[in-house]
Structures
1.
Amino acid sequence: MERVINNGTVKFYNGKQIPLEMHKVRIVQSLNLVPVERRLEAIKTAGYNTFLLGTEDIFLDMLTDSGTNAMSDNQVSKMFVADDAYAGSQSFKKLEQSVKDVFGKKYTLPVHQGRAAENILSKAFIKEGSFIPMNYHFTTTLAHIEINGGKIAELFTPEAMRIKSSDPFKGNIDPARLEAFINEHGTENIPFIRMEASTNLIGGQPFSLKNMKEIRKIADKYGLILILDASLIGENAYFIINREKEYLGKSLQSVLLEMCDLSDIVYFSARKVTSSRGGAICTNRDDLYSKMKHLVPLYEGFLTYGGISIREIEAMAQGLMETVDPDVVSQSPLFIDYMVKELDKLGIPVIMPGGALGCHVDATQFVSHVPQSQYQAASLVSAFFIASGIRGMERGTMSSTRDEEGNDIFSDLELMRLALPRRVFTLSQVEYTIDRLNWLYHNRNLIGGLRFIEEPPVLRFFTGKLEPLSDWPETLAEAYKKEFGNSR
């Protein structure tokens, strides 16, 4: 019998409602909270880019949920029974069966992670002059599309860019804008429509099933295929069940199957979906499968391992089955919702309603005195590491790119993302995060801007280095020590 998701919180006798962990911790890793002086030195050495920090200097790692979700006991145990073969592995057959059960797709092409799937899709479908309409891009998606000669068109609704909103589905595509775009550019120049569940760069915001059905109808009208980036599909389904009245009380499995049935191709990063490694491209269409399958051995590995170990194939197969478990899927959104609401009570600007993946702080309001040209989100992320030892991620103009004249293409939103991977952090650690962010907000005038000193031509946020435009990091560290007494 399928379990149905409830709101996932427990009401206490004193009236307070908090998310309750539906798991117990059996294996732990020690954490280290280094002194603020060491945090300052570490962020300097990293070029004010949190990707370049070493974990020995990090207290809570909220950089990403990619590959950092807690694996279940069943996932780990499955890795010991892997059928380790280059071709024809029985472990791959288990993955195929999980994809059929959870996504309803008969063909599975394994890849080493989500961006590898994007490479295959781009090579197979995109040509010079292609346009890809979507709800919103992801950094690696944009890079692969552009490298292959395509351009993106983000056809979001007006609510998508509002920081604080009551709209439960800010990840929707605007159907009217989509149809107008198709008529303007012609179906011959649009290889597919892409929907991302849930939109990473605008706060992990989901789309509704009603909207997906509308987009499917338009795709059918013009003979276009619909591709679903399902890297956060479990969370998107969770939001549908809790926010879309037609689906209240439905099971995760039924909603997941309906979402995938509306899609011609489903691809995902297993680093997000199943908390292991790898990824896959899935379809029911023979013609689409045939167009892609020869590219997997070329770029990834044979069709039954796709560039990752067979042990990870086993973990993926088990992890996909756990995607229909409400206790697994709901934990991260519940913690995010709690954190977002507590920060909002303190007046700290955050994306609302809470979405998937993490809590997203609006750097534009937080450091309004810093110009966008000085990388507001990157400055905030660096400042927060100094003030807390917590590693967040910049999701703003540093994660964007430059135009042909060399000017920054300013991001629509300047966000500090604090990822909350599934079943990794405790509520007390979330409370610590809220407390240190509250202190930083009250001292936000101490934060200054940054500029690039090393800038790669592609995906510069991964390995680029910056420097401060003043001595504000030192001033911030001194203020922290004065406030908290000891240097931690």
2.
Amino acid sequence: MNKADKIFVLDTNVLLQDPHAIYQFQPHEIVIPAVVLEEVDSKKKNVDEIGRNARMIARKIDALREKGKLHEGVRLERGGIVRVELNHRSFQHLKHVFPGMTNDNRIIAVAMNLQLEEDEKAAGRKVVLVSKDALVRVKADAFGLSTEDFLNDRVIENDKGYAGYQECYVEQDVIEGFYRDQEVDGSAIGKTSFYPNQFVILKDRGGSSSSALGKVDRLGAKIKPLLGEHDHIWGIKPRNAQQKMAIELLLRDDLPLVTIVGKAGTGKTLLSLAAGLLQTEDLRLYKKLVVSRPVVPLGKDIGYLPGEKNEKLKPWMQPIFDNLEFLFDTKKSGELDRILAGMGSIQVEALTYIRGRSIPDQYIIIDEAQNLTKHEVKTILTRVGERSKVVLMGDPEQIDHPYLDEYTNGLTYAVETFKKEALSGHIKLVKGERSALAQLAADLL
């Protein structure tokens, strides 16, 4: 068995985040500490995404066991070795600093003992501890160990994700021609192609105040004016250019998927609800408006709150009800409940029960989608039936899920995956409109 150049020791969170992680380090040697198997085993009965990944990695390791002895190492098809480490339980090199024998410290001890063994060899290999836990990496680094974050599951490498629009500086006659001909070719502004349904803000290169707001066609070649058919939707008027772009996407019936990202107070939920009510109640384009948000990880029970399902959901869905109260201009307690009961076409639902459903002719709003995993987003979008529209929205910088961040969450995954598709549109809202204090808090805090 040939020796690999490096030894990668994997933390539990790497496997629970991506069960395919053991195949991402080839042709090097991958070491899975025994304590990691214990932690994975403790998660396998969970009915959420973490439990699903724990069961998947258990099956993958079991399949490798059939090819050889895991404690000696099993060679992967495309190179590399996977080995379960059973012997490195010595804690003597850590106990003077970290006396508690926690699982994290046991994993660090495995990496340290392996590195000490390699250092005694003439051609010793480098040992790298891979963990998504920043504190594990910090503690390991304090002992001189090499550490890495697991980046293979990142959708984007940095915060320069797709915004859905771009500013282009052009000559004055290009802007005049855009208003005159109601379109302009991408080559006229120095670009041969855009993403389908992308927005473009044309500004005068000469410095004048002339500007134009356009949208790219489905082929990504020509820029045309916005529809502009609804300056007000349910009493809501866009306050900035990005909100105009959002309304354009929300009202287009040829876009079954719309993604909106933005900080708190930028108007994501309010604009989506207003557009949904207009098309469901006034225009009758959809049979039902379904509003949901991740209460708990997909597939898990709502909990043991008292009451029926709607009573259980009320505390979790209160931000949705707050926006509905604003749109319906309710003044008295219980008035919104009576309105919703009388209309019957507005449904506040839990994502828990979406698996196995087919959802046709509905306008579906998924709030706080940044707390969804890639698999959960796939589950939602594959439930969508004919003539339905899905709006995924959230703030990738505000994530509560323990194994997700702004680069790996399901909302970012959907944005980057669908940005080249003609059936979807995306916009990033940048300016807060809730209040001056809310905008300042979003920027500073």
